Amino acid sequence: MSVTEVLDLAGRLDVHLRSSGLLPEGSAITVALSGGLDSVALLDLLEGLSERWCWSLSAAHFDHRMREESGADADWVQALCERRNVPYQMGRSPVVPGNEAEARDLRYEFLERARGELGARWLVTAHQADDQIETVLFRLRRGSGLHGLAGIPARRPPGIVRPLLPFWRAEIADHVEARGLEYLADPTNLDVSITRNRIRHELIPEIEANVDPDIRRQLYRLSELAGRAARVVDRIGESAVRDLVLEASENRIVVARTGFLAYDTGVRAHLLRLLAARVGPRPGRVGTRIALEFINTCPSGRRIHLAGGIVIRREFDRLFFERRSAGEAARDGELVISDASGGEADVRIAGLSWRVRWALGAPEGDMSSGEESAYFDPSELRFPLTVRGWQPGDRIRLPAGTRKLKKVFVDRKVGGSERGGHPLLTDCRGVLWVVGLVRGVQAGVRGDGKVFSVSFRLEG
């Protein structure tokens, strides 16, 4: 690579951002700053372009406490931000994470909070092309479908952007060297007991040496093609869904069963998930299989309950996809919060009694010891909200991506007998809050002072 190419990395990033529209002019941006090579380069590149783009930059660093040197790393990052006059937020894990997945969830929870506190619209991470191909190989190993093979998206909710995805680790390293930038080296990146590191340090070099020296670019091309194909499939699927839906309201859609069954079985699975998403969370693989079997074989007048509060029932040639009614929820040990006006009620979940309070604004009165509260943007909530227990197949959207609640419980060492002690707050999109454990990214408070609060207290 020539010196001109090294020094032109900022110029190529500028061209990429103008063609993609990933970071609009005048944006407030928070950089996820680990202190490693990629994130230091990202901060340097964005600073170099910030005057031209009229950006407002800040940074956030999270100390996982998984290494003895992590506290010193946090001090180093703080000093870097102060030298560069970059506003920053520092976070520290309240517990030592048990594994990489738990660490990632905690990191993104902090980064999302920091973005809001720093007044930024976008959270920018330093994922680059090598991270993309490692992700594709990781998902191939798990048997992922089309959307999984698309890899890391350049932008995804609630405001995460990855501007370095088109650039390789070697290019970024050359930029850092040419600029004389200092950075931190994380020794855990060499630990091949971690699957992603084993892919990076062993599998890819083995393929390059013995199978295909150009495998990195081939895998990157695969992710691009899969992403394009996934977008086409989604557009076609949405068009088919519009044709199938006979009636629609906020909590119910009516679908033509004969029209649905006219599609191939594989297409039905995709359409089912799109239809369910109109009233609640998309079912997982098992939930999809169960729902398809019900639609194919069950007689008129029957119904099936899916995770996330979705009910599918059949009446002759019509399928009803619905959110469970307040009456059904009450019988199932659930509490329905119909609107943003305040109230309180008791609900019994998994043998435990909870006192639930909700209000437009902060909770009234003093919070008692052990009471858990969360705050939401009322304009972003989709009422009715439901308080209920965990069900197999439930998923939660975290800053790091959507995860099965079962995996979240396992990562955080919450056993089956303890899961009833973590009620769920949900709306039609899925889980908003696992009380006492983790908060989803939906309806985050935007800083305009308007909040909807929900509080839980375990009764004796």
Q: Outline the biggest β-sheet.
A: 6 strands, mixed
Q: Give the class from helix and strand content and strand pairing.
A: alpha+beta
**C-alpha termini separation:** 68 Å
Determine the fraction of residues in helical runs and give it as a percent range: 40-55%
Give the key terms.
460 residues; alpha+beta; five-stranded antiparallel sheet; 23% strand; disordered N terminus
Give structural notes.
The protein has 15 helices and 22 strands. It has helices at 3-7, 9-20, 37-53, 70-83, 100-117, 129-142, 146-149, 169-179, 195-210, 215-244, 257-261, 265-277, 285-297, 326-331, 405-411; strands at residues 28-32, 56-63, 88-92, 122-124, 155-156, 160-161, 245-248, 252-256, 303-306, 310-315, 318-323, 335-337, 343-349, 352-360, 372-376, 385-388, 395-398, 401-404, 424-427, 430-434, 438-439, 452-458. A 6-stranded mixed beta sheet has the order 3-2-1-4-6-5, sandwiched between helices. The longest helix has 30 residues, at 215-244. The chain is globular, with a radius of gyration of 24 Å. The chain starts with a helix and ends with a strand. Mean pLDDT is 89; it is low at 1-7.
How are the elements arranged and paired?
Blueprint: H1 3-7, H2 9-20, E1 28-32, H3 37-53, E2 56-63, H4 70-83, E3 88-92, H5 100-117, E4 122-124, H6 129-142, H7 146-149, E5 155-156, E6 160-161, H8 169-179, H9 195-210, H10 215-244, E7 245-248, E8 252-256, H11 257-261, H12 265-277, H13 285-297, E9 303-306, E10 310-315, E11 318-323, H14 326-331, E12 335-337, E13 343-349, E14 352-360, E15 372-376, E16 385-388, E17 395-398, E18 401-404, H15 405-411, E19 424-427, E20 430-434, E21 438-439, E22 452-458
Parallel strand pairs: 1-2, 1-4, 2-3, 4-6
Antiparallel strand pairs: 5-6, 7-8, 8-11, 9-10, 10-11, 12-16, 13-14, 14-22, 15-22, 16-19, 17-18, 19-20, 20-21
Helix pairs in contact: 2-3, 3-8, 6-9, 6-10, 10-12, 12-13
